[in-house]
Structures are given as C-alpha cells and as structure tokens.
Amino acid sequence: MATPYPTDSAPQTPPPLTAEQLVALREQERKQKQMMAGIIAIIVLLVALLGVAIYFLLQPTTPTDKIRDVFIIVVALETLVIGVALIVLVVQLASLINLLQNEVRPILQATSETVNNLRGTAEFLGENVVEPVIKLNGYLAGLKRMLELLGVKPK
Prior knowledge:
Blueprint (H helix, E strand, L loop, with lengths): L18 H39 L6 H87 L5
C-alpha cells in the first residue's frame, strides 16, 4: 500500500560537485596541509632551540648575567605588547556595549511593543469577531434543530 505522502526517512544525497568546486576543495586541503606542516616545523624548531639554549646555559663559562638582562628586556617588551592588547580589548568591549545599548536595545523595545500590539489585536478580534460568529452558529444550529423537530425542514 502506497502512502499518500513521501517519507523523509531516506537520506538526501548532495548534488555532485563541479570540477571547479573539486579543484577549489583540493586547493583548500593543500593549503591546510601546508599550514599544519609549517606549524609543526616551527614547534620542532622552537623545541630544538630550547634544547640548545639549555645546553649552553649549563656550561660553566656561560655569562648568565647578560642572558638574564636580555631576558628581562624581552619580558618587559612582552608586557608592553600585552598591555596594548588589553587596551584594544577594552576599546572593543566599549564598542560592543555601545552597540548593545544604542542599537540592540531599541530593536528589542520595538519588538516588544509590536508583540503587545499583536496581543491586543488578537484579543480584540477574539472578543468582537470570533465570539459573535460562534454564538451565531450556535443559534443557527439550534434554530435548524428546532425546525427539524417541528417538521418544517426535512432532516
């Protein structure tokens, strides 16, 4: 027995990709592989440099005071960069707050007002249109039944 409605249980297969889409997909995969290879190479290089640095720092003739001074300078520069990043973050946060207060809040207020208007309209229509129609249908059904019982109108 055939169902009048098609069933959606069969999975939908996407349309086949065109040649240009296949080329673009392969190019994207190639770029991702190159990026991963680059990241892995950088991590391996940093680990190797760390190992070499540790080896040379463990030598008894290493001038650790100069290395310490350079490290302090690098940490100070890093602190400056982090400070600039925090300033940018605060500015972006202020921009987001401004957006929420001046654009999103009025949209939400207008939406709330529209919903309240729709609620009032629905109540008005329910009271002034739907209820009288229902009452009229009830009276007409009663009148029809009364006429049927009196034999004026056949069943």
